Amino acid sequence: MFAGILFPLCLAPVRAELDVPLLAIPVMLVWPVLYRLAPGWAVPAAIVVAGVLLTGTSGSGWLAGGHLAPRLGFVAPVFDPFVVVGLAVPLFIQTKAGQSIPGAAILHNFGYRPRCARRWCRRASCPESARASEESRSTSRHWRRR
After folding, report:
1. CA 132 from chain center: how many Å?
2. What letter does residue 117 receive in the DSSP assignment?
3. Cα separation, 75 vs 98, whole angstroms
4. Where are the alpha helices (DSSP H) in 38-119?
5. Which parts of 1-146 fold into alpha helices (H)?
6. How far apart (Å, rounded) are the C-alpha atoms in residues 140 and 132?
């Protein structure tokens, strides 16, 4: 589901090995070696190696146009349909699958039957909604009497 989001992140190390092998390969070698020997130090050591390599090569030609310090700049918002398909739709599906549907299942298991939303379910086409609304009315009357 999140292939559009996670796949480019997974390919970033491979692309870095192809683009700047002298910087990426040492980091890619330090991490698995230390992950095997001292797992808690694998990521910090890889970050230190990357920092040392970047600092050592910051005067070379490949990084001459770049700056290590960030700069503030205005970015105009742009609507991109590929972003909608690759980011918004998977996040919407994940939200529904990860929160709303299990939440409704838990409510259902405890005997609460929420009414169908009008935009998703019409009374004529959903006999469940008529029964559920009657149950919720009787439940609310029951709690008001106490």
Report:
1. 35
2. P
3. 32
4. 42-56, 81-83, 89-95, 101-109
5. 3-19, 21-37, 42-56, 81-83, 89-95, 101-109, 127-145
6. 12
What's the Cα-to-Cα distance from 138 to each of 5, 33, 107, 145, rounded to whole Å?
Answer: 46, 65, 17, 11
Is 136:113 a contact under the CB 8 Å cutoff?
yes
d(CA 41, CA 76): 41
pLDDT digits (tens, 9 = 90+) for 98-132: 777 788 888 888 888 776 665 555 444 454 555 55
Burial of 50 from C-beta contacts in 10 A (0-12 / 13-18 / 19+): middle
Note the pLDDT tens digit of each residue in 71-99: 789 999 998 888 888 778 888 888 877 77
